[in-house]
């Protein structure tokens, strides 16, 4: 496999569980102090806001989709690789066989899906549903439920879906990436 120098790609960094945001902060500080800002671009902890329902009360909570991991967009140079893997809280890269072997980047379509899910993508997702269609929710707290699309916001890639909660039709905002047209 030939290495393409100078190509920005996404990599998965393994961290101690629960320390993802601390590692992100450490990496952002090291960007400046160690002079690698030309090789390290975005550092993302994949978090999303979910609604938890307990005792008929709902509240929003931020959940890490991939505990123990963060995503780093970087040009894989020896220096950048060294700085990232030696950041406090980092236990390694996913896709590295060890022994000095550099990691394999995440496929672009995989990272696009993750970035869309957490609302950090510029790439628009094409959908096969429209207002009035019945859709199935693929992930999140309402996974497996079906509902009718009340409205769509193409700019934010979010649909308002009417689902039945506690015997009532309840409007719920769901990312396009988490919806599929229901088979009727």
What report would you give on this structure?
With 184 residues, the protein is of the alpha+beta class. The chain has two domains: 8-117, NusG, N-terminal domain (Alpha-Beta Plaits); 134-181, SH3 type barrels. It is 17% helix and 39% strand. The protein contains three helices and eleven strands; from the N terminus they run E-H-E-E-E-E-H-E-H-E-E-E-E-E. The chain has helices at residues 20-33, 78-85, 108-117, and strands at 8-15, 40-44, 47-54, 57-64, 69-75, 90-93, 134-137, 146-153, 158-165, 168-175, 179-181. It has a five-stranded antiparallel β-sheet, with no helix packed on it. A four-stranded antiparallel β-sheet has the order 2-5-1-6, covered by helices on one side. It is elongated. The relative contact order is 0.16. The model has no long low-confidence stretch (mean pLDDT 86).
